User: What shape does this take?
Amino acid sequence: MQIQNPRATEVIREEAGLTLSEGFPQTLSSNIIPIIDMTPSFHAVVNIANTASSTTTGAITILNPVNEGDLYITGAHIALVKDAACDMASGRVTLAATINGVVRSILSIPVLTLTAQQQSLSISFVRPIKVDKGTSVTLLTNSFAAGNLIRSGGIVGYTVQ
Assistant: This one.
């Protein structure tokens, strides 16, 4: 079997501890099957589990900027309870993070003006989401002056030094 993927060759060489001077076979016999774990060389352990909630208008910070290491989100949840008197303009409650320099929506619930509403969403990611260093994870909403809106959000993830 010919190895076609240069990244796979590099990972096999690194994991086997081979140096360039030792060479590396470019083919594998039919009875050798390489098993490659393309995740980092550690088993990620969740060390971030933050939630926040608010009954007032404005953005909520779920996680302040992580400046040391890289933050990976593996799961997220948002919820809201709103009464019919809430005058928030139709829009959405959004859990957002900065990814590759752009604020991106991770989860979002649509909201209707002057309508009672109760909803929650949660998700686990097969592949974690890497958040830009030095940025916050926030829960965003349109503003409101009357009625009640309770919203909450949270993330689960890990950092890598």
Q: What stands out?
A: The helical segments are 6-16.
